[in-house]
Each structure stands twice: as structure tokens, then as C-alpha cells.
């Protein structure tokens, strides 16, 4: 009801009532009582009327009754007649006049007065005009603004007396505070800057994701500057009338210049600053006129006048280039999501006035909220306070903070959603699949929480968060992420043989990531490092309408194929991981069904027996791009820390990480021999060596410990449930220990011990020995792989060669070690290059792995081919000749 009386309808009703009353006043009789026409006719017939007057224009009869007439009211009455009644009434009046009863009878046709005529004629127009002005004032927002003030600025002036927000209330964006603090200093001491010829930026643009504190920074500048601060939104410039926006821009800057030094803040400037000429109609746009005036005003700034423009936007990419050029927005400050330290400071700011229980560690909360904006963190603490009040507690506890983080990430818990036992089981396996695949892969973030309690639109969720802030991702990490995303779907297929719709969002995100790897990040060998598609679009068009495709249909088909390959490989990998760890998956599901929510420590306990995947091989994108054999430089801070701790310096020379060349498809598999105790070295993006292992010098290795190996075999037999003392197994530990001594003999040999004899006979053509039988042991499962090796080289200019049997023995040196085939291939090639110094060499190994035959995918007969090419063998002609010799028919 109060809103009704405050709105315009009250004034409209009052105006209508006033009009009706005015008209009633103008046309009414002079205080006479209105009676029915039939009643007046009776008074006439009874001879009770003294005098009577007919007013033709209004069809009105005014009469005065005799004094002896008894009635309520006065003796003056008035009645109205309709067309046709007047003849009957006139006849009765004439008869009474003849009888002498009516003393006076006349007829009038009065002319209205000038004032009343004007009032009656103009009153409707006056009312319409008044209503128009009133409604326009309402559109203008009230506040006494008239209809002729459309062009006046609607900026709010913030004075010194208003509540202040200062830089002390802002945290997590120290660089932005420093830049804006310089503006405050310029306004306070302009002579300091002018003395050295410095010019303060004419404009400062704050840009970044929503909720990062851009407007809060502007409010802090207003509180710190101590000068007039004009605040306006970009949408306030444009109204329904053309030209209003440009007029308001002029008025805003006129006010600022009159009160200089001053600051003008335009929030959401993209509302008026979008790229010109992007409208769908192609005609003149009111926004363009407003933008043009804004450009003119910014160009006309007088630096010494002390007028500075600060603007904020979430979309700097759609702003007109003329607005962003130097001389207008000289300084552009990115306000991004805070890092760990920034989140901690923001939490400290927003925790003021909130009673925290003992033991609350805000730094721990900051670690659990990577990617959160300042607004998200404020919401976390506010939600925690609301939950505390709801439970009638006095202090905010860790439990309230945990629940608040979950609410911000996934929404409130839906306690009213009841799931039957089968749906709970499916959800548990789905979320368990996500968690297990994420934990088994080395490139995914740690699993912090798994729950099957419905939140928001999800029936459950798995929280995977990094332990520290990350600003880029490697290809291997993205491949691991794809597998993790499809882990839930794979679990449904593995366990229930019939997937559900619950993986819809997972598939959508995985498809988006896989397509981005193909079209944006250049993560495929087939297409290479190329950006496909133009997602810039036009600023005024929708997201989908704005996308452009700058590639052919054939390339589009390749994009689809490569995207599908990524997804299919990730899907299969997730399925294989779950199949290998079915026992761990079942244990996780049982724990979820019992407790519904598992935290990081509980998940780690379940995952203790988890069989984890090794890190992926490195990838360069092309077999012709050979990574350098020189490891990256050490981080100076790490060197200083090691020196301070008195540790052994990391090897910087020949013993550094050996980065292997790419194999088929650009994959690079290799080891990183280094000094004892040397941790794996970080790799350079694009040619990183993944899965480095430490191979000390054979001379430094301890002798083979036969007794220890035999004891270990006995323990293994006990572990699998066997009795090593039963008949048939009593000699097994000793036999296996002797076998391992032979299988690992290469660990205590050096290739230089084999390639001891060389000849200089002037031979400068290719030397190739093929079909060298080899057997080795897979280091991942300690089961054999067997096959053949083909080794060839082009002697140096001096014609230096070695005995043919030496090449076979060189293969044995590296094969008799725990190996992966890719590294074995590389090590043989590198040893040849290092010792014989040929112009080039090629090593091709073809082997069958028992780990693929008896376990995992169980694909008997599948053979793996790897190659390592060095020096002149990279020449296509020479390489083709070598491959032709290797694959030529055997006799």
C-alpha cells in the first residue's frame, strides 16, 4: 500500500478527481437541490411552484417552490430533462401561469464566460502536459531533476563527509594499489612530478574478471584522494532520447574541470565504450555518439588541471581501440584473481568483526580456495557466519568454513533430495571413478574431498584442487585431466555395463578441453602449433554469432578427428586405470556409502595400495625436432639453498639429464642419468623429459647382493600367500636371485667396456647390423619383453668403425637393466654417438611386452617399434635407405 501511494498513480487519480470537481463546479446550479424531473412535474401540477426558468443549452430547469412546501433542503431546486420532455412541461407551466399559480416563467440561453470557456478547453491539455512532465521526472530518477535536464550528468559526487573506503580495506592486489596510490600522490603533490617532467596518466583502466575488486579499488581511491570524486555507471549515459549520452559526458567533465583537481570514475565502461561499427543494423548508434564525445573529452584533458579518469570493465577485449590508446587510457591495470598470499590477506580483511574459533587457520582456508576472487572469499566468510548463526553458535568453526567453501563451489546441500540405494551406489562409483583416476595420474591435482551428498544440480562431486597456484598447464597435465573428467563415465561402464546421464557435464567439459588442445594450444602433431578459428567476434553480437571459422571443411574434419582421438584415448586410459585398481575402487565406494563424505586424509588412506601410472613421455610435436641433451639451468635460489645446507651440488655437466629424441608421433621417452640423490630435473615446455630416473655410474654401484635378493623373493612368496619352504619352492628364491643377477648385469657394466676395439679402415658408408636378439625386463612390472634390435651408423670422416659383435654386446649392456623400450633405444644410440663419434646413427627396436600380454589390456602379439636417429641419419634420403635395409626381406 505504501508503494502505491508513493508511485505516480496517486497523482494521476488526484488529477482526475480535480478535473471532475472543477467541471462540477463550472456547470452546477447556484446551490440548488437537484430533484427528479417527475417530482418537479408534480410540484407544477399541484401549483406549488412560484417561478420557473428553462435553460435551453443545458436542458436544465431551475425552479423556486412556494413557502408552504414542506421538504428537506431549500426551496430552490433544479431538474434536468431529456429531449422531448420539454413540450409536456411547458404546457403544464403555461396552464399554471394562466391560472395565476406561477408568478414568473422565462427561458434563458446563457453564454459561458471567457474564463470558464478557456478553463474547460485547456484543462485536458494542461493535465496531459502536467502528467508528461511528472512521468519524465520519474524516468529521470526523481530528485528534483526536470524534464529539460536530460542532458545533465547523473554522476554521484562523493565528498569527504561520506563513509570512507581506504586502501587498508583492499587486499590481494598490491600492484593495483601501488599504481593507484601514485595517482593519489600526484593529486596531493603535483609539483613533485612536474619538476622532473613527469606526466600523470590521463586515464587508468581497471580490468579483470568479475568480483576481483575493481570497483572497491575505485572506492578506496575516492576515500584516499581527498578531492571531488564523481562516480557514474556506463549505462547511465544512454537514455531513450538521441544525444542524451553525449550531453551527459560533456556535463560530467565540465563539472569535474570546475572542481579540479578531481577524479571521474566510470564503472562498466564497456556499456558505452564498445568497438564502433559493430552494430547489427549498420546504422548510427547512440553509443557511438556517446563514445565519440568521451574520446573528445579525454583528449582535451589539461594535465595540470588535475582531472583524472578511472574506468573499470570485465571486457577489455570489446573496448574501442581509440579508447585504449596512449593519451587516453595511458595505464591499464589488470586486477586478477588473487594468489595464495592475496587470498590470505583478503580473508584477514573480511574476517574483521567475525568471531573465529581457536585453531582457525586462514592460510589453510586460502590454500583450499585457489581461483577464488575477492568476492568469493567474502562470500565464504559470510556464509560461514550465517551457518554459525543458524546453528546458534557463538564462534565460526572449521566445520562452518568447510561447509561454506562447499556451498560457494557447488551450492547448498539438498537434504530434501532422497535417492534410493541403487542411485547412491551409482553415484558412489561415478565419483569414486573421478577420484581414483585423478589420484592414479601424476599430472592431476590432489583430491581434497569426495561426497555423494547432492549439492546444487549435482548428485555428488569430487573436489580436485591444486596445492599451490598454477598459471599454465602442460600437455601431459591436460591429458591427465581429460582422463580424470571421464573417470566417472568409465566407472559406470566398468561396473554397471550401462552408463547414465550423470556424466553429461563431464563430457561437455572434456570435449571443450580436447577441442581447445587441438585448435588453440597446438597439441597435435597432425595440425601442429596453429590457432584455428577466430573467437574475437563482434562486440555487439552474441557469443555464438560472433565466432568465425577461418579454416576449410577438410581442416574442420581433422579437428573433429583429433578431438575424438584425445577423448577416446582418455576414456580408454580411465577405464584401464579403474580396471587395474578395481579393489581400491570398491574400497572407496564402501567408504563413501558408509560416511557419504571423505576428506583428503581419509581418501589418502584408502588410496595407499593404489597402482599409480608413471609420468607421460615428453612430446615435441614432431619427430624432426630433437630436444637438446643439455639440461636446463638450475634455479639460482635452489643452488644457494643447497650450498647453504652443505649438500652435494647438482651435476651440471655430462651427467645431467639426457633428453631423448622424439619417437613416432613426436613422443619422447627417456631417462635422466644424474648424480646420486639428484632429484628429477624440471623440463622445458614442449620438449620436457618425463619419467627421468637416476642411473649412477656403474663403477659406483654396489655389488649385486644375492642374499638380500633371495630374502626378498622369500618375503614376496609369503606376501602372495605361498610357503617358500614347501617342496617345489625351497630352491625358488635362490634360482630367482641368480636369474636377477643375470637380468640386471648391465647395471654394473659400461658401454665403453664393450666398444673397446675400433678400426680406421677408411670406410665411410653405412654399417648396419639387424635382427640382434634382445631380452630385457620392463621396469614398470618387472616382467620380460623380447624382440630384435637393428643398429646402424655412418662412420666419421676418419673411417673409424668397431667390430660387428660389439654392436650386439652394446645392446645387451643396456638391455640387461630394468628398462623401458623407448629409453633402451635412445641409450644405445647415444652411446654410439659418444664413443665412436660417427656422422650419424640409427637404432630401431621391435619387441613384444609380456606386461601387455598377461595383464592390463592383454593384447597378445602386439609389438612395439621405437627408433632413435642421430646426426646425418636425419637426412630423409639416408633415413629411408636405412629403413629399407632394415625391412628388406630375410633369406
UniProtKB/TrEMBL annotation:
Stretches for region Disordered: 661-683
UniProt keyword terms in alphabetical order: ATP-binding, Cell cycle, Cell division, Cell membrane, GTP-binding, Hydrolase, Membrane, Metal-binding, Metalloprotease, Nucleotide-binding, One-carbon metabolism, Protease, Transmembrane, Transmembrane helix, Zinc
CC cofactor note: Binds 1 zinc ion per subunit.
GO biological process, one term: tetrahydrofolate biosynthetic process
Active site: 431
Biochemical pathway: Cofactor biosynthesis; 7,8-dihydroneopterin triphosphate biosynthesis; 7,8-dihydroneopterin triphosphate from GTP: step 1/1
Subcellular compartments: Cell membrane; Membrane
Catalytic activity: GTP + H2O = 7,8-dihydroneopterin 3'-triphosphate + formate + H(+)
SUPFAM superfamilies: FtsH protease domain-like, P-loop containing nucleoside triphosphate hydrolases, Tetrahydrobiopterin biosynthesis enzymes-like
GO molecular function, one term: GTP binding
Ranges where the AAA+ ATPase domain occurs: 200-339
Pfam family, one: AAA
Bilayer topology annotation: Multi-pass membrane protein
Enzyme Commission code: 3.5.4.16, 3.4.24.-
Membrane-traversing stretches: 114-135
Residues given in the record as ATP binding sites: 208-215
Cellular component terms per the entry's GO annotation: plasma membrane
CC cofactor: Zn(2+)
Family, as annotated: In the C-terminal section; belongs to the peptidase M41 family.
Protein name stated in the entry: Multifunctional fusion protein
Native species: Nocardioides zeae
Taxonomic classification: Bacteria, Bacillati, Actinomycetota, Actinomycetes, Propionibacteriales
Gene (name only): ftsH
Amino acid at each position: 500500500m505504501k508503494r502505491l501511494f508513493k508511485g505516480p498513480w496517486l497523482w494521476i487519480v488526484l488529477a482526475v478527481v480535480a478535473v471532475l470537481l472543477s467541471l462540477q463546479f463550472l456547470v452546477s446550479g447556484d446551490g440548488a437541490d437537484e430533484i427528479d424531473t417527475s417530482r418537479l412535474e408534480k410540484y407544477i401540477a399541484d401549483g406549488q411552484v412560484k417561478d420557473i426558468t428553462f435553460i435551453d443549452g443545458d436542458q436544465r430547469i431551475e425552479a423556486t417552490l412556494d413557502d408552504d412546501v414542506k421538504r428537506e433542503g431549500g426551496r430552490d431546486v433544479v431538474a434536468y430533462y431529456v429531449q422531448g420532455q420539454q413540450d409536456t412541461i411547458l404546457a403544464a407551466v403555461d396552464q399554471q401561469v394562466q391560472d395565476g399559480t406561477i408568478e414568473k416563467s422565462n427561458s434563458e440561453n446563457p453564454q459561458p464566460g471567457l474564463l470558464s470557456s478557456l478553463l474547460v478547453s485547456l484543462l485536458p491539455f494542461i493535465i496531459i502536459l502536467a502528467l508528461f512532465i511528472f512521468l519524465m521526472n520519474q524516468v529521470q530518477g526523481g530528485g528534483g531533476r526536470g524534464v529539460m535536464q536530460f542532458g545533465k550528468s547523473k554522476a554521484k559526487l562523493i565528498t569527504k563527509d561520506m563513509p570512507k573506503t581506504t586502501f587498508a580495506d583492499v587486499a590481494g592486489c598490491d600492484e593495483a594499489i601501488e599504481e593507484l596510490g601514485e595517482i593519489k600522490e600526484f593529486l596531493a603533490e603535483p609539483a613533485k612530478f612536474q619538476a622532473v617532467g613527469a606526466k600523470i596518466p590521463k586515464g587508468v583502466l581497471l580490468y579483470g574478471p568479475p568480483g576481483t575488486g575493481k570497483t572497491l579499488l575505485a572506492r578506496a581511491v575516492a576515500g584516499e584522494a581527498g578531492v571531488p570524486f564523481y562516480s557514474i555507471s556506463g549505462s547511465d549515459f544512454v537514455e531513450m532520447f538521441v544525444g542524451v549520452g553525449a550531453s551527459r559526458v560533456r556535463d560530467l567533465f565540465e563539472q569535474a574541470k570546475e572542481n579540479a583537481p578531481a577524479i571521474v570514475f566510470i564503472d562498466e565502461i564497456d556499456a558505452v565504450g564498445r568497438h564502433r561499427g559493430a552494430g547489427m543494423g549498420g546504422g548510427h548508434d547512440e553509443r557511438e555518439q556517446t563514445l565519440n564525445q568521451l574520446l573528445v573529452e579525454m583528449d582535451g584533458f589539461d594535465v595540470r588541471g588535475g582531472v583524472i579518469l578511472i574506468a573499470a570493465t570485465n571486457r577489455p577485449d570489446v573496448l574501442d581501440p581509440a579508447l585504449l590508446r596512449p593519451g587516453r587510457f595511458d595505464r591499464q591495470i589488470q586486477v586478477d584473481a588473487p594468489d595464495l598470499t592475496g587470498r590470505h590477506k583478503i580473508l584477514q580483511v573480511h574476517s574483521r568483526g567475525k568471531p573465529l574459533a581457536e585453531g582457525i587457520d586462514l592460510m589453510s582456508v586460502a590454500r583450499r580456495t585457489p581461483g577464488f576472487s575477492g568476492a568469493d572469499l567474502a562470500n565464504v566468510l559470510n556464509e560461514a557466519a550465517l551457518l554459525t548463526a543458524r546453528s546458534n553458535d557463538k564462534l565460526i568453526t572449521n566445520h562452518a568454513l568447510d561447509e561454506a567453501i562447499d556451498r560457494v563451489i557447488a551450492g547448498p546441500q539438498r537434504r530434501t533430495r532422497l535417492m534410493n540405494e541403487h542411485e547412491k551406489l551409482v553415484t558412489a562409483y561415478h565419483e569414486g571413478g573421478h577420484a581414483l583416476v585423478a589420484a592414479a595420474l601424476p599430472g592431476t591435482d590432489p583430491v581434497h574431498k569426495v561426497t555423494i551428498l547432492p549439492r546444487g544440480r549435482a548428485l555428488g562431486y569430487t573436489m580436485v584442487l591444486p596445492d599451490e597456484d598454477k598459471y599454465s598447464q602442460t600437455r601431459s597435465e591436460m591429458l591427465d585431466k581429460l582422463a580424470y573428467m571421464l573417470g566417472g563415465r568409465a566407472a559406470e561402464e566398468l561396473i554397471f555395463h550401462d552408463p547414465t546421464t550423470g556424466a553429461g557435464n563431464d563430457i561437455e567439459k572434456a570435449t571443450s578441453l580436447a577441442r581447445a588442445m587441438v585448435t588453440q594450444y597446438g597439441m597435435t602433431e597432425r595440425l601442429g602449433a596453429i590457432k584455428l578459428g577466430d573467437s574475437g567476434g563482434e562486440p555487439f553480437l552474441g557469443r555464438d554469432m560472433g565466432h568465425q571459422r577461418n579454416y576449410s571443411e577438410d581442416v574442420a574434419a581433422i579437428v573433429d578427428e583429433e578431438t575424438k582421438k584425445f577423448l577416446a584415448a582418455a576414456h580408454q586410459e580411465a577405464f584401464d586405470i579403474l580396471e587395474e585398481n578395481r579393489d581400491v575402487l570398491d574400497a572407496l565406494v564402501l567408504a563413501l556409502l558408509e560416511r557419504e563424505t571423505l576428506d583428503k586424509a581419509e581418501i589418502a588412506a584408502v588410496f595407499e595400495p593404489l597402482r599409480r601410472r608413471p609420468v607421460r613421455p615428453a612430446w615435441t610435436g614432431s619427430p624432426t625436432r630433437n630436444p637438446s641433451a643439455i639440461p636446463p639451468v638450475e634455479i639460482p635460489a635452489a643452488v644457494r639453498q643447497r650450498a647453504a645446507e652443505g649438500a652435494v651440488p647438482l651435476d651440471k655437466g655430462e651427467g645431467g639429464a639426457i633428453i631423448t629424441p622424439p619417437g613416432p608421433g613426436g613422443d619422447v621417452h627417456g631417462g635422466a642419468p644424474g648424480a646420486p640423490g639428484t632429484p628429477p630435473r624440471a623440463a622445458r615446455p614442449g620438449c620436457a623429459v618425463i619419467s627421468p630416473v637416476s642411473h649412477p655410474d656403474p663403477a659406483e654401484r654396489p655389488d649385486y647382493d644375492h642374499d638380500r635378493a633371495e630374502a626378498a623373493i622369500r618375503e614376496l612368496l609369503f606376501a602372495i600367500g605361498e610357503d617358500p619352504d614347501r617342496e617345489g619352492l625351497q630352491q625358488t628364491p635362490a634360482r630367482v636371485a641368480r636369474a636377477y643377477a643375470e637380468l640386471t648385469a648391465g647395471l654394473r657394466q659400461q658401454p665403453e667396456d664393450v666398444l673397446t676395439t675400433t678400426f680406421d679402415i677408411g670406410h665411410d658408408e653405412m654399417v648396419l647390423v639387424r635382427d640382434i636378439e634382445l631380452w630385457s625386463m620392463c621396469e614398470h612390472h618387472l616382467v620380460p619383453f623380447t624382440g630384435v634390435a637393428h643398429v646402424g651408423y655412418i662412420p666419421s670422416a676418419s673411417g673409424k668403425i668397431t667390430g660387428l659383435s660389439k654392436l650386439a654386446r652394446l645392446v645387451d649392456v643396456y638391455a640387461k637393466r630394468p628398462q623401458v623400450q623407448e629409453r633402451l633405444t635412445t641409450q644405445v644410440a647415444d652411446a654410439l654417438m659418444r664413443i665412436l663419434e660417427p656422422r650419424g646413427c640409427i637404432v630401431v627396436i621391435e619387441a613384444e611386452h609380456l606386461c601387455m600380454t598377461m595383464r592390463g589390456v592383454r593384447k597378445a602379439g602386439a609389438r612395439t617399434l621405437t627408433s632413435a636417429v642421430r646426426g646425418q641419419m636425419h637426412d630423409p634420403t639416408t633415413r629411408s635407405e636405412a629403413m629399407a635395409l632394415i625391412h628388406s626381406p630375410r633369406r
